[in-house]
Fold Crp/Fnr family transcriptional regulator.
Amino acid sequence: MNSLWFLDDVNLFKVLCPHKFKAYKKEHDFDAYKKKDYIYFEEDSANKVYLIEKGKVKIGYYNEDGEEVVKAILTKGELFGEKAILGQITRKEFAQSVDNVTSICPIGVDTMHDLMRNNQTLSFKIYKFIGFKFQKLERRLQLLLFKDTKTRLKEFLNELCDEYGYNCDKTGDHVIKHPYTQKDIASLIGTSRPTLNILLNELKDENYLDFYGKEIRIIKKSA
């Protein structure tokens, strides 16, 4: 499984969480969250960044109609709230636990800046991570603006294969076990849930994929 968020095959949790450093270990605690608990809300002060020790976290916002828009669902080893490093004062999105076993490593912005200032390699990895994340959001925006819904879905499935799939670089079927609901996927590709369901069934009828629950199989084409 090749995840964009594991830079150079390094789990950021393993190198960043303050309990790894003697200077911060005694003062540091993990935060535990249950399903639907919020880590932060829109407009909260952006004074920390967060690493996921275990569990899953949903990142999103509410549009003008009060509807939830999901930007990402993150898993173990991933970083979020990182715009605080770049000087963001208040949150522009929310972060919410999506299961009952989520454990978070919170890092104060000042602590993060200290760690980055004292370790150029670490600083490079963080900025590289932020750059990759912005590139991914830019690609998604381009898809929303210039591609039809079916193409957006196929491109999103390719992203899922990179992040949650296996056998994706081989010639057999590509199998994806992902954390998204159909509602989440519809939001991420800018369509409705009924339209998404129609497109998934169309692709199934075309023998492009098969799906069950949160597993999608992209079917190898016969020569």
